[in-house]
Amino acid sequence: MKKYPSGNQRNNHTAPLKEVFEELLEAYRLKDTFSEKTVIQEWEQLMGKTVASRTQHLSIRQKVLYAKISSGPLKKEMMLNKSKILQLIESKYGKGVVNDVAFL
Q1: Fewest 10 Å CB contacts: which of 12, 55, 69, 76?
Q2: 78 near 65, Cβ under 8 Å?
């Protein structure tokens, strides 16, 4: 007769918490949303205090990062360096999190 495991036995397979968390995000299709929120939350670390202090609002819709910048010259400089900003985001958060940046 075959014996079935009872519900109180532990699984011998263990995985790091980060790996399990990423699997959960994948399973519930929340990985993109989580990555987008992380980009917004870490904007100051990503761009520095000067840019962050002149950023009034950040949002991501349909893989486009919208950044409202209060300084005209800074906005112009960021427009000129848009590809560098996209590369920076891609290198830190992965490809496909943000495909474009719009400065308002």
Answers
A1: 12
A2: no
